[in-house]
Design brief:
The complex is a heterodimer of chains A (110) and B (139). Chain A is an alpha/beta fold and 110 residues long. Helices cover 48% and strands 30% of the residues of chain A. Chain B has one domain: Histidine kinase-like ATPase, C-terminal domain (Heat Shock Protein 90, 2-Layer Sandwich), CATH 3.30.565.10. Chain B is built from three helices and five strands. In chain B, β4 (117-123) and β5 (126-134) form a beta hairpin. In chain B, α1 runs antiparallel to α2. Classes of the chains: A alpha/beta (110), B alpha+beta (139). The interface between A and B is medium-sized, with 22 and 28 residues.
Chain lengths: 110, 139
């Protein structure tokens, strides 16, 4: 899968493009956990995330657990309507800090 | 079978890189026959979860096994059947929302929430998950 990555100050912004599912979730998990290790402040930019399955949700949950254990910060931004439905039905909207824009997510880190 | 009823059979190999094609096809069929965007997305996602389960759990992620997907629309009722010849599920996940930290069980939860019913059965070595949902079709 295509994963866009950029650094804004001390924050790493990861942008998965297209689908996050069983086929590519391991690749994204590796990127996400590495980013958390590297910077401790990560935003997942969901602007171009068109589809997420339960396998993709699991990756985000694993990352959230790692962030909690290491006192890192993880936020999501710009979640589109269809993936947001999956988040809502799965209870993930209450687990994650979800912001309308990447800028808002970065600002929330303080 | 009524002449207005529609049925399509798909068969894929037990490879995860085939699953997206199934989901995209199912979504397109739902949109063609009158589902709104969100309903089509819900059916697509539920079908993908079912096919993933067949590949990952029934076939232990081994290639070279068949997975059948039957899409049918009759009397404004959509039915998706996903079948495999792998290991049978002895016990279905409980129909309760997974704990926030639980890493498994969300696929079944999503299917049960978004479809009207999700029934699992085994007959002559073939396991079938039957998902159904009502929606108004324009054809």
């Amino acid at each position: 899968m295509d994963i866009q990555e950029q650094r804004q100050g001390e924050v790493i912004v990861l942008g998965p493009v297209g689908r996050l599912d069983s086929l590519n979730c391991r690749e994204f998990e590796s990127h996400l956990l590495s980013a958390l290790n590297d910077s401790g402040k990560v935003v997942v930019d969901c602007t171009a995330l068109a589809y997420i399955s339960s396998a993709g949700l699991r990756v985000l949950l694993v990352a959230a657990k790692q962030a909690r254990a290491t006192q890192s910060q993880l936020s999501l931004a710009a979640l589109q309507d269809n993936p947001r439905e999956v988040f809502d039905i799965s209870g993930f909207s209450a687990i994650f800090s979800i912001h309308p824009t990447v800028e808002a997510a970065i600002a929330s880190f303080g | 079978m009524n002449s207005d009823d529609k049925t399509l059979m798909l068969e894929i190999d037990s490879r995860l890189d085939c699953v997206a094609l199934v989901g995209i096809s199912i979504r397109a069929l739902c949109l063609e026959y009158g589902a709104d965007e969100m309903t089509a997305y819900q059916v697509q996602t539920s079908t993908v979860e079912a096919v993933n389960n067949a590949i990952i759990h029934a076939y232990s992620n081994q290639l070279g096994h068949p997975v059948w997907i039957r899409w049918s629309l009759a009397d404004k009722r959509l039915t998706i059947q996903v079948s495999d010849e792998g290991m049978t599920m002895r016990q279905l996940p409980p129909d309760i929302e997974p704990e926030p930290d639980a890493e498994g069980g969300r696929g079944w939860w999503i299917m049960r929430q978004w479809m009207d019913s999700a029934e699992y059965m085994t007959d002559s070595g073939r396991n079938t998950l039957i998902l159904s949902k009502s929606f108004s079709n324009k054809h």
